[in-house]
């Protein structure tokens, strides 16, 4: 693998390089890539991104909740115009590199004509490098462009803003900042099967500690199977995609039954034939229905779930009309 990578690096005779974490690949990130394309048309656009998040390495207990996994980040960057995405394994050793060492080891091998970053870009040990430092290090070797942050209304578009919206359960605002609905992905696991017993079978995804997820509550959204198979697990014809199914989505620990582990539980509307255990699915959040509530009994819980389903139908119908 390293030999193949080295041959690719040697084959580059010129590139425009974009560097960043790009968690979520929101419109601000996308505009950085678009500006790089415009600045150096006709040369490969190479994106350098880091995994895991540098903050989680420098401060193991203080890293941010991630908005996307690495697979989705790479796919989104390619969709935004990247010809190649190179993932830098961010280690404790890498965090000790000076800005000059980082340029020598990770930027110069790409034969850059220009490096494009956001104006708040920092790199090197203790974040000592900024756009000015990068410009100085690139003098005579490559040009540097630092771009201002993109705004949605009066608010800067940034990954931390998306996380804050999710933490408050405001998935509508999170979608505004992302430029698309927030998506949570995972492998469907066996749950307690209480939903099936109550007439509301759900596809259950655990919530890993390192990933962002909306605040506990009930939401309207969509579920999509991601492995190229249909509702029953049969392979789809080439080029065909599984449709997104409307769903009422519960996020939380199921306090009525004294649960502890956070899960995303999706009840797909009007379908009782889905076979999704061990399948990868994506859950896209449209709007919040209500917060999480602990009910005194099964009867009250079922009545509320019926109301949640109807509220979900209305919310999704309104979203389709607005869209």
Structure characteristics:
single chain, 323 residues, alpha/beta, Rossmann fold, Elongation Factor Tu (Ef-tu), domain 3, 2 domains, 11 helices, 24% strand, disordered N terminus, FMN adenylyltransferase activity, flavoprotein, EC 2.7.7.2, ATP binding
- Decide which structural class fits the backbone: alpha/beta
Please write the CATH class name of the largest domain.
Answer: Alpha Beta
Biggest sheet: strand arrangement: 8-13-10-11-12-9
Q: What is the residue-averaged pLDDT?
A: 90
Number of DSSP strands? 13
Number of domains: 2
Q: Could you tell me how far the N terminus lies from the C terminus, measured between alpha carbons in angstroms?
A: 44 Å
Instruction: Look up the CATH topology of the largest domain.
Output: Rossmann fold
Q: What would you call the shape? A: elongated
Count of helical segments? Answer: 11
In terms of per-residue confidence, which ranges show pLDDT below 50 for 5 or more consecutive residues?
1-10
SSE series: HEHEHHEHHEHEEEHHEHEEEEEH
What oligomeric state do the depicted chains represent?
A: single chain
Instruction: State the fourth-level CATH superfamily of the largest domain.
Output: HUPs
- Please tell me the CATH architecture of the largest domain by its name: 3-Layer(aba) Sandwich
Relative strand content: 15-25%
For the biggest sheet, the summary is:
6 strands, antiparallel
Gyration radius, rounded: 22 Å
């Amino acid at each position: 693998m390293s030999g193949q990578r080295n041959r690719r690096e040697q084959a580059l005779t010129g590139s425009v390089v974009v560097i960043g974490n790009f968690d979520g690949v929101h419109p601000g990130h996308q505009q950085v890539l678009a500006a790089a394309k415009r600045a150096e048309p006709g040369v490969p656009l190479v994106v350098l991104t880091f995994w895991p998040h540098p903050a989680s390495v420098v401060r193991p207990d203080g890293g941010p909740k991630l908005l996307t996994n690495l697979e989705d980040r790479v796919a989104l960057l390619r969709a935004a115009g990247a010809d190649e995405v190179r993932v830098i394994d961010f280690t404790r050793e890498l965090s000790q590199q000076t800005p000059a060492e980082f340029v020598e080891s990770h930027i110069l091998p790409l034969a850059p004509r220009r490096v494009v970053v956001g104006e708040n870009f920092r790199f090197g040990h203790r974040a000592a490098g900024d756009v000015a430092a990068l410009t100085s290090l690139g003098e005579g070797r490559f040009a540097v462009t630092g771009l201002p942050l993109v705004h949605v209304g009066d608010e800067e578009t940034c990954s931390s803003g998306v996380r804050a919206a999710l933490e408050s359960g405001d998935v509508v605002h999170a979608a505004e900042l992302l430029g698309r609905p927030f998506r949570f992905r995972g492998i469907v696991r066996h749950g307690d099967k209480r939903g099936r017993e109550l007439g509301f079978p759900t596809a259950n995804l655990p919530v890993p500690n390192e990933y962002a997820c909306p605040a506990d509550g009930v939401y309207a959204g969509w579920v999509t199977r991601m492995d190229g198979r249909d509702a029953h697990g049969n392979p789809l014809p080439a080029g065909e995609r599984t449709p997104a199914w409307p769903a009422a989505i519960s996020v939380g620990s199921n306090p009525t039954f004294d649960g502890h582990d956070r899960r995303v539980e999706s009840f797909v509307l009007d379908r009782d034939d889905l076979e999704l255990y061990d399948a990868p699915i994506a859950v896209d959040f449209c709007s919040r229905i209500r917060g999480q509530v602990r009910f005194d009994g099964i009867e009250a819980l079922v009545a509320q779930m019926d109301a949640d389903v109807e509220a979900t139908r209305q919310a999704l119908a309104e979203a389709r009309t607005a869209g």
